[in-house]
Design a protein that fits this description.
The complex is a heterodimer of chains A (470) and B (384).
Chain A lengths: L1 H11 L7 H15 L3 H15 L5 H17 L2 H6 L3 E4 L7 H9 L4 E4 L1 H13 L3 H9 L10 H11 L8 E6 L4 H12 L6 E5 L14 H22 L5 H25 L8 H6 L2 H4 L7 H19 L11 E4 L8 H8 L3 E5 L6 H4 L7 H9 L8 H14 L5 E4 L11 H12 L3 E4 L11 H19 L1
Parallel strand pairs in A: 1-2, 1-3, 3-4, 5-6, 5-7, 7-8
Helix pairs in contact in A: 1-2, 1-3, 2-4, 4-7, 4-15, 6-12, 7-9, 8-9, 9-10, 11-18, 12-15, 16-21, 19-20
Chain B lengths: L1 H11 L1 H10 L4 E5 L5 H6 L3 E4 L7 H5 L10 H11 L11 E6 L2 H12 L4 E5 L7 H22 L5 H23 L10 H11 L7 H14 L10 E8 L6 H8 L3 E9 L14 H12 L10 H14 L4 E7 L3 H17 L3 E6 L5 H22 L1
Parallel strand pairs in B: 1-2, 1-3, 3-4, 5-6, 5-7, 7-8
Helix pairs in contact in B: 1-9, 5-6, 7-12, 8-10, 13-14
Chain lengths: 470, 384
């Protein structure tokens, strides 16, 4: 039984037969390291993944497989460190070019990861088992009652439990929340003096409605912060990244983004051809660096696009034709039941606002300097800017994708990204006259906001939307 | 303590006085946060008014329709009173200068703007050890100065700025002298009154305050301490005791302890540091406000330095125990509390964490009182 369930899990996740002999022992070892039992693997194989993911599609199975390979790789980070590989971490959200460029420059000498989000994805998306990590953090200095972010708790707990090593450098982009960077200071003082961090910050001090990417002073300040950060990282690990590597990353990134845009267009088909969580998972390589690379992810995306096109051609969908659709702030795969619950109630949430590009994000940069261009790009992102500008971008995205309303919230652990949603709801509703709903909840973990706790709220939202559309 | 009574009365009637001044054409500038130099506001000819209220549960609740519930009750209070229609000052402000050093403050500024209140933000980068950040704060102060000049129509001359810096330095000097009296056993003034005194000092005229503080210092020097000898001496640490949020300081004293030192980031004068009055005055403001004073918890890296500062206060003020006064959902202070607690544990200094959402109903007061009383009792027993 033991052998079979690990093998079955890998097979379900798109591993080829000729990969099994290599990966079965590695996966078992990774499970031991992550505290996953045979029962957990069985639950994932027989319940979690088939319930929430379109595992009947080869592309989705391959996509899940890419995550599994990355998770296995993450559990080897301690070994990499022992062999002298430089460990570079970061946190969400960032512009990934710099991390990928490091990897491209010195593939065997550097390991890059955002370990907290990968572990959260691994634990909750696949096994619904993040609690042991959260509880470890809560027992040892990050109290439960303050509603700290699950990612920060996970990063800390993973280090405490020895799942991950101390980084040679942890480049923290503190351009969004305060708790992310401060957690790293906490880890260093409270638990691990070797937890080395370099932080870059920018104050949230722009008036409502300011188009921040057009404020040259601000772009310049941010560019200098990025330059300063990246140079410090390179110096710290002794790897010099040539400009062409950054360019190479940008080319790959753009190619992948163009394919994602194609998938997004397909997601807009009526009937909706694919569940929101499946579609959203493909965005991860644009948000997190994969130490194992994005090539296999891109292949999975190509297969999925082909399969979804077929579904669209066949008018085959997960919802009836004409079903209402909402934009949601972030349909995170870490609570996959959320999208499923909407879909079971006859409403699609095919687009995540945070993972939908505004028109301006697709425009070429104004600046030639790569750091200025990156900073400008960052300040075109709705999540990074003041709520006035953010609301404008959300309205534009809702108009582009012709949705019937918007769902905000589910971010109550984040004092930046989550704290403006009630205000945004008012601004967007005033402008679009479309319904905007707010759900108090948490996209990373569901201890406090379980499916049953949110069911009534989601059902009533769906009823309202369906009535309006009827 | 007649002087404290007088200062309390001046503070209570400050809104009326500001109204009179406004009718005479003087601009009134509200401000939030320790990085907004009053010196600049005075030098522009405007009158400052510190927005620092706290201690009641209704105002933070009034903000919930517009903001995440899990935000600082202190930040929410600064606009909550206004939303309830019971803030006498905010409607008459010509400008609100909102410090943006963390997410709570920035979201508060969002709300000020959403409700069409005249707002100027002051960005304060938390990565304070970089020259980039220092320059950013300098530019922000320069912009603020220009904004104030535009508002008042007055040029902020070096002479005016020097005058206001000197006046506020004088207040800091006197508060510092009063603070140092608390090293005595027993101290001549407790935390409840010292924190109030700090608060009053923000609401009195610059000319009126120093003589009163001087008199108070004289009285405290000569007078008899209101506390019996041997009371446990405590440090109160945390983010802020807002104006009106006096339940905990009072409770500590009523429970047999006396707070002789504070590490509070907001609502206090930070009186140990004066701004230099020679050279480039704007640079001097940056130097003192951004670099010299004990950095706030949001700065990074900072917690080790702050723990060292706590240890110094423990030594200098002969402190027996630390009470951490946390406010609900202030995530950064919550993390810092764990660090401080661990450090105190290593030093064998008793540590008590309290947390408030400004809910001081009878049901909440019972357990709070029991915790504080037991803590103080345990310190007494350790000493006996």
């Amino acid at each position: 039984m033991a052998k079979n369930i690990y093998e079955d899990f890998l097979r379900l996740n798109g591993f080829e037969e000729d990969e099994m002999s290599e990966y079965i022992p590695e996966w078992r070892k990774a499970c031991d390291k992550l505290g996953l039992t045979e029962d957990d693997v069985k639950f994932s194989t027989e319940e979690q993944l088939p319930t929430y993911f379109a595992v009947e599609l080869e592309g989705i199975r391959k996509l899940l497989g890419c995550f599994v390979k990355e998770i296995i790789d993450l559990t080897k980070a301690n070994e990499y460190k022992e062999k002298g590989v430089k460990i570079v971490y970061g946190i969400l959200p960032t512009i990934l070019h710099y991390y990928y460029a490091l990897k491209l420059t010195a593939p065997d000498k550097v390991y890059v990861s955002f370990p907290d989000i990968f572990l959260t994805m691994a634990a909750n998306t696949f096994f619904h088992k993040l609690n042991p990590l959260l509880e470890e953090a809560e027992r040892t200095g990050i109290p439960y009652g303050c509603r700290h972010c699950a990612l920060n708790k996970t990063r800390y707990a993973a280090r405490r439990l020895g799942i991950i090593p101390s980084p040679d450098i942890n480049w923290i982009w503190g351009f969004i929340c305060d708790e992310g960077p401060k957690t790293d200071e906490f880890i260093r003082i409270y638990h691990d003096p070797e937890w080395k961090t370099y932080i870059t910050r920018i104050p949230h001090d722009q008036p409502l409605g300011t188009v921040e990417d057009e404020v040259v002073d601000r772009v310049e300040y941010l560019a200098n912060q990025m330059r300063d950060g990246f140079e410090s990282v390179q110096k710290e690990i002794g790897i010099k990244v040539p400009d062409e590597k950054i360019k190479e990353v940008i080319d790959t990134w753009q190619r992948y983004a163009a394919k994602l845009a194609e998938l997004n267009l397909l997601m807009a088909a009526d009937p909706q051809p694919l569940g929101a969580t499946d579609g959203r998972l493909f965005w991860e390589p644009l948000a997190l660096p994969y130490n194992t690379g994005v090539e296999s992810m891109e292949r999975a995306l190509d297969i999925t696009i082909r399969e979804v096109k077929q579904r669209v051609a066949n008018k085959e969908g997960i919802l009836p034709e004409g079903a209402p659709k909402l934009m949601v702030y972030n349909a995170s795969p870490t609570i996959p039941w959320l999208a499923k619950m909407f879909e079971e109630n006859g409403v699609g949430i095919p687009f995540s606002e945070a993972f939908t590009l505004a028109k301006k994000q697709l425009e070429p940069p104004t600046f030639e300097d790569p750091y200025m261009a990156a900073a400008e790009n960052w300040l075109r992102m709705s999540m990074a800017v003041n709520p006035g500008y953010q609301a404008e971008q959300i309205c534009e995205k809702m108009e582009t994708h012709k949705v019937d309303g918007l769902v905000l919230g589910l971010m109550d652990f984040d004092r930046w990204l989550g704290s403006s949603h009630r205000l945004l709801a008012r601004m967007v509703e005033e402008k679009t006259k479309l319904p905007v709903f707010y759900i108090e909840g948490d996209i990373w973990e569901d201890r406090d906001y379980s499916p049953e706790a949110l069911r009534t709220r989601i059902e009533s939202i769906c009823e309202i939307v369906k009535m309006r559309k009827a | 303590m007649n002087i404290l009574g007088e200062l309390a009365e001046v503070t209570r009637t400050r809104p009326e006085k500001l109204k009179e001044q406004r009718e005479k054409g003087v601009k009134i500038v509200g401000y939030i946060g320790r990085f907004v130099p009053e010196e600049l506001i005075y030098a522009s000819g405007a009158l400052p008014y510190l927005l620092c209220r706290g201690g009641q549960p209704e105002p933070p609740d009034a903000v919930i329709p517009y903001m995440l519930r899990f935000m600082s009750p202190y930040a929410r209070s600064q606009i909550g009173y206004h939303l309830l229609g019971i803030d006498p000052v905010i409607p008459m402000l010509d400008l609100i200068v909102a410090q943006c050093s963390d997410c709570h403050e920035s979201r508060l500024a969002d709300l000020f703007e959403y409700f069409k209140l005249p707002t100027a933000r002051l960005g304060v980068p938390p990565d304070w050890e970089k020259s980039l950040s220092r320059d950013y704060y300098y530019k922000e102060l320069t912009r603020l100065g220009e904004k104030l000049e535009g508002l008042t129509g007055n040029k902020i001359s070096d002479e005016k700025l020097k005058e206001s810096i000197s006046s506020i330095n004088k207040i800091r000097d006197l508060l510092r002298k009063i603070n140092l009296l608390r090293k005595e056993q027993p101290p001549p003034i407790g935390s409840d009154e010292f924190i109030r005194l700090n608060h009053y000092s923000f609401y009195c005229d610059l000319e009126e305050l120093p003589p009163k503080l001087n008199d108070l210092y004289g009285q405290l020097q000569k007078g008899k301490s209101p506390f019996p000898k041997g009371m446990p001496r405590l440090l109160l640490a945390g983010h802020v005791v807002g104006v009106g949020d006096y339940v905990v300081p009072k409770l500590i004293e009523a429970s047999g302890g006396v707070v002789v030192a504070e590490l509070l980031d907001e609502g206090m004068r930070q009186c140990a540091w004066n701004v230099k009055t020679d050279g480039d005055l704007m640079r001097n403001l940056v130097e003192t406000y951004y670099l010299e004073r004990t950095p706030p918890s949001i700065f990074q890296p900072v917690w080790e330095e702050r723990v060292e500062f706590i240890k110094k206060l423990i030594r200098d003020f002969n402190i027996d125990g630390v009470i951490w006064y946390g406010l609900s959902f202030e995530e950064i202070y919550d993390l810092e509390c764990s660090i401080a607690s661990k450090a105190m544990d290593e030093m064998n200094i008793p540590f008590l964490k309290l947390e408030s959402s400004y809910e001081y109903a009878r049901e909440a007061m019972g357990p709070l009182t029991t915790r504080v009383e037991s803590f103080i009792e345990s310190i007494k027993q350790r000493r006996s």
